[in-house]
Amino acid sequence: MNKVVSGPDVALEGLTDGMTLMVGGFGLCGIPENTIAALVRKGVKNLTCISNNAGVDDFGLGLLLQSKQIKKMISSYVGENAEFERQMLSGELEVDLIPQGSLAERCRAGGAGIPAFFTPAGYGTEVAEGKEVREFNGKPHILESWLRADFAIVKAWKGDTSGNLVYKRTARNFNPMMAMAGKITIAEVEHLVKPGEIDPDAVHTPGIFVQRIFQGSNYEKRIEQRTVRKRM
Amino acid sequence: MPLDKNQMAKRIARELQHGYYVNLGIGIPTLVANYVPEGIDVVFQSENGILGMGPFPYEGEEDADLINAGKQTVTLLDGASIFDSATSFAMIRGQHVQLTVLGAMEITDQGDIANWKIPGKMVKGMGGAMDLVASAENIIVCMLHTNKAGESKLLKECTLPLTGVKCVKKVVTDLGVFDITPEGFKLLERAPGVSVDEIKAKTEGRLVVEGEVPEMVI
Q1: A114, B132, B150, B175: which has the fewest Cβ within 10 Å?
Q2: Is residue A66 a contact partner of residue A90, using CB atoms and an 8 Å limit?
Q3: Distance of CA B116 to the CA centre of its chain
């Protein structure tokens, strides 16, 4: 089944104002750079973005914040972005901060058809406000619901034309769960290959979860914290 | 003399036990990895998807696709594995990780912790901290004893939004080591040259001092 589209602009066909998007990545690691750039070009507005982080001021989802295309962010950690903080504190941007493990599991649940689950994370905190609490094994847990998206945008290292994906190192992060939870999932890959070139045992995201795939280009892969040690 | 950040990390490293899987938070907790005692074999987990995290790469060998939860470039040790975020938090919530070390802005004598938000000022988000503190069997908090104004951060009640309730088991500050007990912060060790009186004066929460409190050898 061939899911290849020519590039990010075509991949975004049908994405309109007010939609909910999931965007893969952890920090700037494993983010769909090409598709984010195409979203800026497309100029769609009032987006709800579900992503672990919000990029930095001039890269990643920060680009969509600068252009004020995001109405609401659902994230776990947004510390590296001054424009984000400004928009949030001024009330221009709605923000829903949720624990990272709950975010991951809520995306997974969305893709897996599990409407809600109980987790201990956030019990007794702001996160638990308005949520059902139930004890299991004598310990309180809160009810968290699934997350699903109109479009999920993910980045993989390698993919085949049927949408099977392989991620590299920690660029995997949220991408596999988000790929499962999108009505339309767009995968951009560094290497687009023919079916059969990925060992079936090595597939991280089976192609059933991917509707559109293209080979990206000019990856910047910016490093947020370059930490090294000296050679002895 | 209060402990410096490396001494705090070194002291916490003594809590590591052979065979532990350990998650280290951002900041001083990350330094604990530099002081693993001889003969102790532990595996470091990074919640963005690594078991078997190694040291920083040599200059020129950084890989943008290989970072830790603090977004720093790292390496993998032989035998490492990589996984997605849902699997990572399954390890954490499922209590497969034996020890979590993290920083805090405030803690209480009942083991409550606040470390993710200062309303109206700083809102960075909780990241994985709420999942970690809600699940880990063994949580050590590593923090300065007082804020810049000299006020205690070891309190009766947190003033900041909570990260977790009744979860912290042990605290290592620049002034001492404390267990959280039903009676409050139990002073186990003092930093070299720091008196019990100084610790009493700088601890707002309930403090338990039993007999002679040994001075830490660091």
Answers
A1: B150
A2: no
A3: 14
Question: Among A89, A32, A41, A90, which Cα is nearest to A61's?
Answer: A32
Helix (H, G, I), strand (E, B) or coil at A75: strand
Cα distance between residue B45 and residue B100, in whole Å: 10
Shortest CA distance from A155: residue in chain B: B65
Catalytic annotation, pick one of B15, B38, B47, B157: B47
pLDDT tens track for B49-81: 999 999 999 999 999 999 999 999 999 999 999
Residue A191 near chain B (CB below 8 Å): no
Residue A123 neighbours by CB distance under 10 Å: 22
Residues 15-44 of A with CB under 8 A from B: 26-30
CB contact under 8 A, A230 and B59: yes
Please name which of A86, A77, A32, A41 lies closest in space to residue A59, comparing C-alpha atoms.
A32
Q: How many CB atoms lie within 10 A of CB B75?
A: 18
Residue B47 among the catalytic residues:
yes
Query: 3-state class of A141 per DSSP?
Result: strand
Task: Read off φ and ψ for residue A69, nearest 5 degrees.
Answer: -90, -10
Answer yes or no: is pLDDT of A80 > 80: no
Does B59 contact A at CB distance below 8 Å?
Answer: yes
pTM given for the model: 0.96
Which residue among A52, A105, A122 places its CB closest to the CB of B130?
A122
- Rounded to whole angstroms, the Cα distance separating A209 from B176 reads 52
Say if residues A215 and A7 touch (Cβ distance below 8 Å). no
What is the separation of C-alpha B110 from the centre of its chain, rounded to a whole number of angstroms?
17
Angstrom CA distances, A199 to A78, A160, A194, B181, stand at: 37, 11, 11, 54
Sort out which chain B residues have CB atoms less than 8 A from A78's CB and list them.
123-125
Four-CA torsion B134, B139, B143, B145, nearest 10 degrees:
100
Q: How far does A154 lie from chain B, in Å, by closest CA?
A: 13
| Number of inter-chain CB pairs under 8 A, A vs B | 181
Residue in A170, A190, A220 to test binding to B, most B beta-carbons within 10 Å = A170
Which of A124, A172, A228 is facing B58, going by the closest CB pair? A228
Q: pLDDT, tens digit, for every residue of A201-222? A: 999 999 999 999 999 999 999 9
Whether residue B183 contacts residue B111, with contact meaning beta carbons closer than 8 Å, is answered with no
A228/B124 Cβ within 8 A: no
